[in-house]
């Protein structure tokens, strides 16, 4: 399967979140190959950071300058879908430790499949699968006025994740933590990996490389 990751330096990174670089891209590519022989495409604003073994797409200027994590919404654009060509792809964040092939969560035939693990929102965009040519409205409907209305109505705003929930609304096909895709919780998971975990997302200020200094199993898996 084709996976897409995102590496850029925008205003979203001024929040209290972990910082990512080419080493995270390299580790993600290695884990995806090791657990299913999947391909990785990195969307970036600095091609010099991308490992030479990973294919990349340079993020357009009008995308990289968007606030919060809105640049990731380019995944839903007609322009990006023309780059992909056809079929389906999965968007995946860099803050993940993969321990097994989890792509069976995308087995269903649906235009979009999203993770249901989000705080006060419908969907978590750390991982989702999208059919090329579908749901362009997530990108094309992103106007200043509509974004302002969405923010005013939101109880909790995280950027791209909130916007996707706003546009799609309830009812999209989802998978949950019972699938093996989980939120990594240091107090629970640092000392031992959950037996049924296939992919653990840090979801915030933690990062795989920092956790690898504190957790033996993360150190063995994040490579």
Give a written overview of the molecule.
The protein is an alpha/beta fold. It is built from 9 helices and 10 strands.
Tags for this model:
alpha/beta; 20% strand; 223 residues; 7-stranded mixed β-sheet
- How would a textbook summarize the main sheet? 7 strands, mixed
Report the total helices: 9
Radius of gyration from the alpha-carbon trace, in angstroms: 17 Å
The parts where pLDDT drops under 50 for at least 5 residues are none
Task: Report the count of strand segments.
Answer: 10
Spatial ordering of strands, largest sheet = 3-2-1-4-7-6-8
Please state the average pLDDT score: 94
Label the overall shape.
globular
Q: Whole-Å distance between the termini? A: 19 Å
- Helices and strands: which structural class? alpha/beta
Per DSSP, what share of the residues sits in E-state strands of 2 or more residues?
Answer: 15-25%
Helix content: 25-40%
Order of helices and strands: EHEEHHEEEEHHHEEHEHH
Give the secondary structure arrangement, pairings included:
Blueprint: E1 2-7, H1 22-34, E2 39-44, E3 55-58, H2 61-64, H3 78-84, E4 88-92, E5 96-98, E6 112-115, E7 124-131, H4 137-140, H5 144-153, H6 160-168, E8 173-175, E9 181-183, H7 186-189, E10 199-201, H8 208-212, H9 216-221
Parallel strand pairs: 1-2, 1-4, 2-3, 6-8, 9-10
Antiparallel strand pairs: 4-7, 5-10, 6-7
Provide a compact summary of the structure.
Helices cover 28% and strands 20% of the residues. With 223 residues, the chain is α/β, with parallel strands linked by helices.
């Amino acid at each position: 399967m084709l996976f897409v990751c995102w590496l850029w330096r925008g205003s979203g990174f001024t929040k209290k979140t972990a910082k990512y670089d080419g080493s995270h891209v390299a580790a993600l590519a290695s884990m995806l190959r090791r657990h299913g022989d999947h391909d990785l495409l990195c969307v970036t604003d600095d091609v010099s950071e991308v490992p030479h073994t990973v294919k990349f797409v340079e993020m357009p200027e009008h995308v990289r300058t968007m606030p919060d994590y809105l640049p990731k919404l380019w995944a839903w654009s007609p322009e990006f879908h023309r780059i992909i060509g056809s079929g389906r792809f999965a968007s995946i964040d860099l803050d993940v430790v993969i321990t097994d092939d989890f792509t069976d969560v995308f087995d269903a035939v649906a235009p979009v499949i999203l993770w249901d693990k989000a705080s006060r929102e419908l969907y978590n965009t750390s991982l989702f699968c999208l059919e090329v040519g579908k749901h362009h409205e997530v990108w094309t409907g992103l106007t200043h006025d509509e974004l302002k209305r969405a923010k005013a109505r939101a109880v909790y705003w995280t950027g791209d994740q909130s916007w996707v929930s706003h546009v799609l609304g309830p009812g999209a096909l989802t998978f949950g933590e019972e699938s093996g895709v989980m939120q990594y919780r240091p107090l629970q998971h640092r000392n031992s990996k959950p037996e049924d975990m296939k992919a653990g997302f840090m979801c915030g200020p933690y990062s795989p490389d920092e956790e690898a200094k504190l957790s033996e199993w993360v150190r063995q898996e994040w490579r």
